[in-house]
């Protein structure tokens, strides 16, 4: 990354005591980026290891910055959350992901779901159900192919969560708990919230082969999910050994660099074309 006259390098440098001015600069750049459509979605395939098929993708946002190039979400999502800009950004992500998924469907590729990350700021917004209802109507996506990823660490009021999740389920969309195992999991909520899928956090998957505690945790999460009738997917799968372990524990849905990195839509389409040959 180069430094330019506008000090763009500095505004992305995370520093614990970053000044109010830097925050403001970044906030204004995000606002401008939304207006000028500088955000772009990458999609990471989710694979059914029993068939080798792509069963879905996770939409992951990047900022295609005019001078800095592709900026990863870790550099701007936290400020977007702090400032509330995650609400319009998140709505753009939801809409764009649904439009893209529907384009793939209409081109005749086998049905795939699209998973979208949700931040608690969006969740607590009363408008979430309304926004999603509108997006479903606009894009004609079959709701069963839209999955929302929430995390255990999302701070939300339990009554509000039950109500909102209940209304989202009524719409027919899927709910997944992301980064499962890293927060305070109240197992009771898995049933109460009618969760469809758990995504085992990549920190456990990373050390499966070297840390027997992590291997035990992963095996336990998979068994528990199966007992509760909840689907389970593992993320961050990078090696054949990790994959083999997961398969031996009956986890057959995976996502990770071993198969594919997050890719621009055009490259996903090339993959889909290959599978149709
Ligand atoms: P996440 O939801 O846990 O997403 C998975 C992250 O792991 C992605 O990083 C992905 O590129 C990376 N990853 C995938 N496979 C592997 C692997 O095999 N090994 C390793 N080491 N990493 C892998 P990314 O795209 O940089 O996203 C980081 C985080 O930013 C996401 O973590 C999510 O919390 C947040 N994020 C991304 N897009 C959005 C969005 O549209 N809205 C919100 N609210 N958050 C988002
Ligand atoms: Ca995620
Ligand atoms: Ca995750
Ligand atoms: Ca994560």
Automatic annotation (TrEMBL):
Coiled-coil boundaries: none
Domain EAL, chain residue ranges per copy: 23-276
Superkingdom classification of source: Bacteria
Name recorded for this polypeptide: Diguanylate cyclase (GGDEF)-like protein/PAS domain S-box-containing protein
Residues shown, of full length: 465 to 741 of 746
